[in-house]
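Escalated from tier 1: pyridoxal-5'-phosphate holo job.
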Amino acid sequence: MHARLNLSTAELQALDAAHYLHPFTDYKQLSNKGARIISHADGIYLWDSDGNRILDAMAGLWCVNIGYGREELARAAAEQMRDLPYYNSFFQTSHEPGIRLAEMLSEVTPEGLDHVFYSGSGSEANDTVVRMVRHYWGCKGKPEKTVIISRENAYHGSTMAGASLGGMKPMHAQGGLPIPGIVHIEQPYWFENSAGLSRREYGVKAARALEHKLDQLGDDKVAAFIAEPIQGAGGVIIPPDSYWPEIKRILDERDILLVMDEVICGFGRTGEWFGSDLYDIRPDLMPMAKGMSSGYLPIGGVMVSDRVVETLWEGGEFFHGYTYSGHPTCCAVAIKNIEILQDENIVEHVRDVAAPHLAERWEALADHPLVGEARSAGLVAALELVKDKATGERFPEVGTTGSLCRDICIDNGIIMRAVRDSMIISPPLIISASQIDELVDLAWRCLDQTASELGVSA
Ligand SMILES: *Cc1c(COP(=O)(O)O)cnc(C)c1O
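Tier 2 regenerated the structure:
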């Protein structure tokens, strides 16, 4: 496969700096450096406009679950575009791709989630969550139950509601977020916050932050608790095994809704279809996006439990929806994506082959002098970069070591992402055992180079 670019790298970089405002980017810094132009992709690899091959250990942004270059998805989109590229489902109309996908989703998602509200993205799905949980309690005659409890350092998107649900302080600082009625509790980040507690003890303690917050606010004010099964953008924070059972215990005693944000964990990432399956949880609402179409087209949605739907059913019109809710072409691509996940047993491949192999190889990275902890679950993984292995002491100026390592990675032909001073991966689910070996060997080489730039002996 070859790139079909019309302009040179230098021309593209100049036009990019002149006209293109990128997401989550320091514009001046990028224009000084010049963007890397990605030209084409296949399987787990990307190529840039200078012809460099790069192993995409992030699957784009955690989304290209079935890998790049699947002709079937291109064909599904083209066929649907010819028949019916677009129609809405607002005014008592519907269409086959939207209906068939809804049925498929009710099959692959956990029991009791049999209805979907479509969105165009994960952020929009979480906007729907905020609207829907408050509407639900309104329908129940308890309109004062409005507060949503989330967690520090969570990521739930970048719209006003998404960024407010998220617990990222720098995002809140730009523009007076969170919006009213959203509060945050401690995240279950053992490596950072455990203060000498065992994983088990710390997991229970972190979960009880929810109980304390509920006691403080009063259950009669709280609509829902929202959480990612495993925090992704916050740094692949895998909760201790004791965390989710304790959260379940607390929620079983209270009348509030549980929202599991499956935008990353969904569609096979953890070796189960959903993170909720991994932790044996039955959420009331489940936002999803990313892996739903493997990123080939933008689509998201919220799975809604039968219990919630029964109440909404009696509540009259829900004044909410998007022009592109259930976009037929995006639905057709999502259907084909799910068929591929099923027909090629990709979730089983993650569970039985790729995840165990990654776990074994990744854990060995903990022997590297720069690494304080190496952890993985399914096909997400993180390395904690530290100055002192014995104490877990970090480097001064949080984030500089992570950024240095990330730049070294891309120069060596692998995309890993830096979150502060954690290095994280989330590769395509179709990655083979030998490609995992290639990934980990590259990671080791990049850690060595990072150590030598920092003057740490490797
Ligand atoms: C990416 C992400 C979102 C936001 O999805 P967008 O499609 O970028 O709007 C929401 N929640 C989680 C957990 C995510 O990782």
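The domain at 72-343 is CATH 3.40.640.10 (Aspartate Aminotransferase; domain 2).
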